[in-house]
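call fold(seq) -> tokens
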Amino acid sequence: MTDQIDEAGKNFLLELFRQTDGKTSAKASMYDIGAALGMEKQDAKHIAEELMGWNLIEIRTLSGGIAITNDGIEKARQMGASGGTAAAVGLGNALILDDAAHKAVENVINGLKAEIGKSGLNFETLNELVADIRTVDAQLFSSKPKTAIIRECFRSVKAALEKTGAKECLMQVKNLLGE
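ret:
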């Protein structure tokens, strides 16, 4: 099955893993991935489409934004990739988010935004989830984002996600919360 991926496809997947730090919530341009490997745009598009067929990557934007899937992460690790979500960063106990936690929160929030429409939640729960995401966004724009506010928002988000099948998002939220 996926052992039939050619060398260019393997290199493409490994480069996507590297550029997204092995996170399904992060996206990169298929054309930038190809350029980093010395490919023409058309070749990069062809390889991306092939990897989509194997469910190793997914399209995120019409302009060529792609993301690695859980299957893609597993395949990349089998090919020797290291790092990524296994080295998850938590919120910590500091009053103000440090840079690493700030980036981790941004990645989780971006993943939530991408998945929220597929959640199948009722209006009331969905509305609460959107309010929590907006609160976290507001904190991220602050010059001093408060860890306690973000932590409480993610506790609420976790409760909403437990009602859905969004396992990857739930896992990332739990990692942030240190659970």
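The first strand starts at residue 28 and ends at 29.
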